[in-house]
């Protein structure tokens, strides 16, 4: 008993007891505590990437290469980011049915879950634009007038004034933007698909993109009333004015010829 009392009075006794208590507490926590959220998230992300890789190998590798490095049939996907995949696959442009000047929008063959898996795998190959959040592309609270100004400055040359699309060179074209999901419009501006230039945040801020989306929603809404009457596909004032001159003058000339012919016929009789 005297020896035990002497050990308890030792200056390091309290430190030893504290260390033993901490070690026991840590061991019990490790044994019974659930796995950390971060670890669970990492595991889920790894599984998503693995599933995306399987989808890629079946539907994409033949053109873009087994590691996304690209081939003569398809460009490299390293660094294009998840946003590019979400746009291209989410609008049905990929997988492409056949090579051509431009891949058109068509029916989507993957579910959104599968698209997310493909996007996660491509994003793992190299850093690139992420899929935007709803808050970034939602037109709520955006400046429609500012969006119209930005659209006419940066986009109307190809898509025309109201996003109806138009022809380009060598069989290429700017697609009609009516009915395109706001998220896909945002991603197109981010990534610059096919013939379109990209507009990163350094060129058009996230708010600018949101304003443009709001403008397109406004001009293509079923509730929009055109005060000028028939819009002629939204070709713009110059084209529509030329149309009016050609057909208006043509009609007046036709009427004048008809009147002259009737007058000449009346004189002869």
Automatic annotation (TrEMBL):
<dbReference type="Pfam" id="PF13442">
    <property type="entry name" value="Cytochrome_CBB3"/>
</dbReference>
<dbReference type="InterPro" id="IPR009056">
    <property type="entry name" value="Cyt_c-like_dom"/>
</dbReference>
<feature type="domain" description="Cytochrome c">
    <location>
        <begin position="47"/>
        <end position="126"/>
    </location>
</feature>
<keyword id="KW-0349">Heme</keyword>
<dbReference type="GO" id="GO:0005886">
    <property type="term" value="C:plasma membrane"/>
</dbReference>
<keyword id="KW-0812">Transmembrane</keyword>
<feature type="transmembrane region" description="Helical">
    <location>
        <begin position="242"/>
        <end position="261"/>
    </location>
</feature>
<keyword id="KW-1278">Translocase</keyword>
<comment type="subunit">
    <text>The cytochrome bc1 complex is composed of a cytochrome b (QcrB), the Rieske iron-sulfur protein (QcrA) and a diheme cytochrome c (QcrC) subunit.</text>
</comment>
<feature type="binding site" description="axial binding residue">
    <location>
        <position position="64"/>
    </location>
    <ligand>
        <name>heme c 1</name>
    </ligand>
</feature>
<keyword id="KW-0472">Membrane</keyword>
<dbReference type="InterPro" id="IPR050597">
    <property type="entry name" value="Cytochrome_c_Oxidase_Subunit"/>
</dbReference>
<keyword id="KW-0249">Electron transport</keyword>
<feature type="domain" description="Cytochrome c">
    <location>
        <begin position="142"/>
        <end position="263"/>
    </location>
</feature>
<feature type="binding site" description="covalent">
    <location>
        <position position="155"/>
    </location>
    <ligand>
        <name>heme c 2</name>
    </ligand>
</feature>
<keyword id="KW-1133">Transmembrane helix</keyword>
<dbReference type="GO" id="GO:0020037">
    <property type="term" value="F:heme binding"/>
</dbReference>
<dbReference type="Pfam" id="PF00034">
    <property type="entry name" value="Cytochrom_C"/>
</dbReference>
<keyword id="KW-0408">Iron</keyword>
<feature type="binding site" description="axial binding residue">
    <location>
        <position position="159"/>
    </location>
    <ligand>
        <name>heme c 2</name>
    </ligand>
</feature>
<keyword id="KW-0813">Transport</keyword>
<protein>
    <recommendedName>
        <fullName>Cytochrome bc1 complex cytochrome c subunit</fullName>
        <ecNumber>7.1.1.8</ecNumber>
    </recommendedName>
</protein>
<keyword id="KW-0679">Respiratory chain</keyword>
<dbReference type="InterPro" id="IPR009152">
    <property type="entry name" value="bc1_cytC-su"/>
</dbReference>
<feature type="binding site" description="covalent">
    <location>
        <position position="63"/>
    </location>
    <ligand>
        <name>heme c 1</name>
    </ligand>
</feature>
<keyword id="KW-1003">Cell membrane</keyword>
<dbReference type="GO" id="GO:0008121">
    <property type="term" value="F:quinol-cytochrome-c reductase activity"/>
</dbReference>
<keyword id="KW-0677">Repeat</keyword>
<keyword id="KW-0479">Metal-binding</keyword>
<dbReference type="InterPro" id="IPR036909">
    <property type="entry name" value="Cyt_c-like_dom_sf"/>
</dbReference>
<dbReference type="GO" id="GO:0005506">
    <property type="term" value="F:iron ion binding"/>
</dbReference>
<feature type="binding site" description="covalent">
    <location>
        <position position="60"/>
    </location>
    <ligand>
        <name>heme c 1</name>
    </ligand>
</feature>
<feature type="binding site" description="covalent">
    <location>
        <position position="158"/>
    </location>
    <ligand>
        <name>heme c 2</name>
    </ligand>
</feature>
């Amino acid at each position: 008993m005297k020896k035990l009392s002497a050990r308890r009075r030792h200056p390091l006794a309290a430190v030893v007891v504290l260390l033993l208590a901490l070690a026991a507490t840590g061991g019990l926590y490790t044994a019974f505590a659930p796995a950390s959220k971060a670890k669970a998230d990492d595991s889920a992300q790894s599984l998503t990437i693995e599933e995306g890789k399987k989808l890629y190998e079946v539907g994409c590798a033949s053109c873009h290469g087994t590691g996304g490095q690209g081939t003569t049939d398809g460009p490299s996907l390293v660094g294009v980011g998840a946003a590019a995949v979400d746009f291209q696959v989410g609008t049905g442009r990929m997988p492409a049915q056949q090579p051509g000047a431009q891949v058109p929008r068509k029916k989507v063959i993957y579910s959104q879950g599968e698209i997310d898996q493909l996007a996660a795998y491509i994003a793992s190959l190299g850093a690139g634009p992420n899929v935007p959040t709803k808050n970034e592309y939602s037109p709520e609270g955006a400046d429609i007038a500012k969006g119209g100004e930005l659209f006419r400055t940066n986009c109307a040359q190809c898509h025309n004034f109201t996003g109806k699309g138009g022809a380009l060179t060598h069989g290429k074209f700017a697609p009609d933007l009516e009915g395109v999901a706001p998220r896909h419009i945002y991603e197109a501006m981010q990534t610059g698909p096919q013939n379109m230039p990209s507009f990163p945040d350094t060129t058009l801020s996230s708010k600018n993109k949101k304003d443009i989306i709001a403008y397109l929603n406004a001009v293509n809404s079923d509730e929009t009333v055109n005060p000028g009457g028939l819009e002629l596909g939204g070709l713009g004032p110059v084209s529509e004015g030329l149309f009016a001159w050609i057909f208006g003058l043509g009609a007046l000339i036709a009427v004048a010829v008809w009147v002259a012919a009737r007058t000449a016929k009346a004189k002869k009789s």
